[in-house]
Write a structure and sequence with these properties.
The complex is a heterodimer of chains A (200) and B (157). By secondary structure, chain A is mostly helical. Chain A contains seven helices and no strands. Chain B folds into three domains: 33 residues, no CATH class; 44 residues; 47 residues. The chains are: A mainly alpha (200), B mainly alpha (157).
């Protein structure tokens, strides 16, 4: 009898305390939510992400040196290798997406500087697939698209292809306007405290 | 943008000594406090034999009626402690509640997580150049998060 009562006490106590705890301590992760709320919360910053960021950092600094030596074809190859490399989280982590967006923007700029305007346009498209909507990364990609189309227009104009040059100029203008629109949105949000300037 | 100053040699040495002390090598003035904090968050189980010995020592001193009462109190107390432990383990994510998934083997509530780097930049990017400076900043910021997570996983704040 005493044992039965003791077991009943145990079960009752577990139920009551667990119910009071609710299985959630209300703590907030850096991602902004209680980890108990969802199983698909962003993964913690770990060694693999750090290794990837380190690799990207090395590549961009190498490309700086190659650009200084005017070795643009090698610089393009380095960036293409980084863009196609395996990335943590299947390339879906926000940091990876943004680093890739910036990498594609740089790649497009170098490609257009070497007269590869169509390749540059493709790189911009690849970058836009990764840049978060309404971010500096997205705005920068449109800006590079504008610069690239402007270079294309200048090139076509020197060849006397007036109609194509005009079309490229219009594309450049459209891209610049879109870039301005996005950057204005980001700046406004940042000033309202929504874009955040917390350099964590 | 304020940058965290690089650790001094003394700070690095102190951190190394504290880590060694927590792993059972050598001693450090803060090791006892760090252990106490770790045990407060993740208490280790009292060995069964030690538990029995404490109970025997205490109960042997009591007359029979009081012993019976003490046993009941101990039973209720144990039940409540067990319930509290279950609630704590589930709420801190140390064990998964039925039907939930777990990403890590340690409590992850306070770990710094992967997230957008946009807040690291307070103005639009220059039309050309600056990519290396941007990746430098991203790597530096996430490096800081990574170190924080490392200490968190080791149970050191």
């Amino acid at each position: 009898m005493v044992r039965v009562r003791a077991r009943a006490w145990t079960v009752a106590a577990i139920v009551v305390v667990a119910a009071m705890g609710g299985g959630c301590d209300g703590s907030r992760s850096a991602a902004g939510g209680c980890p108990c709320e969802s199983a698909d919360v962003a993964p913690p910053v770990d060694t693999v992400l750090m290794a990837y960021l380190s690799k990207a950092r090395v590549v961009h600094h190498e490309v700086d040196l190659l650009e200084q030596d005017d070795r643009l074809a090698e610089a393009v190859a380095e960036l293409q290798e980084l863009a196609g490399a395996a990335a943590p989280g299947g390339g879906t982590l926000p940091e990876v997406q943004e680093v890739l967006a910036d990498t594609f923007a740089r790649l497009a700029d170098l490609q257009s500087r070497t007269g590869r305007y169509d390749d540059a346009a493709r790189s911009i498209e690849d970058g836009l697939k990764r840049a978060p909507a309404g971010s500096y990364f997205e705005g920068h990609l449109y800006e590079v698209r504008g610069v690239s189309e402007q270079r294309r227009a200048d090139f076509l104009a020197t060849r006397g292809d007036v109609a194509a040059a005009r079309a490229a100029r219009e594309a450049a203008m459209k891209a610049f306007e879109r870039a301005l629109e996005i950057q204005d949105q980001v700046v406004s949000r940042a000033l309202q405290g929504d874009g955040g300037v917390d350099a964590r | 943008m304020d940058r965290e100053p690089a650790p001094t040699e003394e700070e690095v040495e102190q951190a190394r000594a504290l880590r060694d002390a927590l792993e059972g090598r050598g001693d450090h003035a803060d090791a006892e406090l760090a252990r106490a904090l770790r045990l407060a968050v993740r208490p280790t189980e009292l060995p069964h034999l030690e538990h029995q010995a404490i109970l025997h020592r205490t109960l042997a001193k009591l007359p029979n009626r009081r012993r019976s009462f003490a046993l009941r109190i101990a039973g209720v107390g144990t039940s409540l402690a067990l319930a509290a432990a279950v609630a704590l383990l589930v709420s801190r994510g140390i064990v998964a509640a039925p039907g939930t998934e777990r990403h890590d083997t340690v409590a992850t509530a306070s770990l710094m997580r992967s997230r957008t780097t946009q807040p690291l930049f307070d103005q639009p990017f220059p039309r050309q150049g600056g990519e290396s400076a941007r990746i430098d900043r991203i790597a530096w910021a996430r490096g800081r998060d990574y170190r924080a997570n490392l200490f968190e996983r080791m149970g050191v704040r």
